[in-house]
Amino acid sequence: MVLKKIVLDVLKPLKGPSIVELAQTLSDSKGVHRVTIVVNEIDVETVTLTITIEGSNIDFEAVRSIIERLGGVIHSVDQVVAESSR
To answer: What is the value of pTM for the model shown?
Structure first.
């Protein structure tokens, strides 16, 4: 099975890296071709984001690691598109 698309609900610190930096870092990950980030809510200290990642073979653990390294946390995985690798 290869992941083609994942949609994540992510919380990141307001004072952390910008969404531009987050998108650039995620798009550099192996198998990722497109990253879309939408800001859903801004609180005093946090930003709630919807992150859509599309690619040919997305490494979910690498994506999780990047988000956590940049101070974010995945609240939920809201959509997944996977294809058979056969």
So the answer is: 0.94
